[in-house]
Design goal:
There is one protein chain. With 383 residues, this protein is of the alpha/beta class. It folds into two domains: 8-153 and 255-381, Periplasmic binding protein-like II (D-Maltodextrin-Binding Protein, domain 2), CATH 3.40.190.10; 158-247, D-Maltodextrin-Binding Protein, domain 2. The protein is built from 17 helices and ten strands. The protein has helices at 8-14, 47-52, 63-67, 83-87, 90-99, 113-121, 132-141, 186-196, 212-220, 233-241, 263-268, 270-289, 291-300, 309-319, 336-351, 361-365, 371-381, and strands at residues 70-76, 103-110, 127-131, 145-152, 158-163, 178-181, 206-209, 226-230, 245-247, 256-262. The protein has a five-stranded mixed β-sheet. Helix 1 packs antiparallel against helix 9. The chain is globular, with a radius of gyration of 20 Å. The relative contact order is 0.17.
Amino acid sequence: MPTDDRSPSSIAARRRFIGLGGLALASAGGTLALLGCSKGEAPPATPAAAASTAAPAAPATATAAETASPLTIAVIGDGRTGVFASLQTGAGARRLATEVPAKVVWQPGFTASLPVMEAVKAGGVDFSFATATAVVNAVAAGVPIVPLAAYALPANEVDMLVAAGSPIRTAADLKGRKIAHQNGTTGTYSLIKYLETAGLRLDDVQAVSLSGADAYTAFAQGSVDAWIHWQPASALALQRLGDKARTLPGVRTYDYAFYVARGGFADAHPDLAAKLVRLIRETQADAAAHPDATVAEWAALGGFEAGGAEQQVYRQLIVDARLSDSGAIALKPIDEAAAASTQDLADNFQALGVLPNKVDVRGFLLDPKFDAIRRAVAAELGA
């Protein structure tokens, strides 16, 4: 595996390589438990540590906002790419500064959305992106989250990589093969669903749980037969591997992504929580409409080398709407589709023993106690 600072392993250490859902699942006692960080991955950031590595702040807001109680927004990775990066620059930052009557504190450095849920429980985070798996675990552990809005992840956000000369062509060919995935994530769920298309189950293959960086190493060295992962990691890996790798057809993403707020914050400021959802949708729409300006902004923030191959990969992912944030242009209040999909994910993970107990996540997401905030979000989004 290459060892220069442009390798996917190094990218993982400094940015959201593990990205969507790179997390451990609930322990047998129903509490949140983190997996040990793999080599090349930063540990979950504490509030103090995250503050010390904060991404560039948004332009100064009005005096009233400066004196208001801070609004702490969690950022997975270093906040130099993605919708939160765009929300801190350009038009997104201008809207945030004029429309949010609070002092915004960006808290980057989280390795995934599960440690964010722990920070929410401790009262250190007010607002965050959350994967479906993080929501399931938060519900199981009694984390005081308020689900605000959701969207279906891009159907083509994940890739199944195999060696260019591999005989594996379809899901059926994976039987008995060694497949790298990151346990309990979007990749795991997509793997389960892909195997089902050939009448296979997860125990029909040799599923090996590895972080994105370690999976890349194993795949590049031929230690596994296939690797399933999400963007941008898989696209960056394909760019680096060139003609040594290809993807399998028909691999899909099935789960939803969410934006959630801490209960105390949402109860005190429901209109502000709803407004943040709208600003995210508008900022993502701007990013999608202006891919060149978007990647230039991310490069200026230090997300990657300006004009380099990585910038081109990100640009193409924006154009093709394959990043996890891409679906945020379709953000809407929590509905039956989002709740049912997340329940299916939870049931699959519980059946596999990844979750120790059945979790009624559908009932939680559709609980009438959230009707008021759901109406506020709907009003902001025009839904």
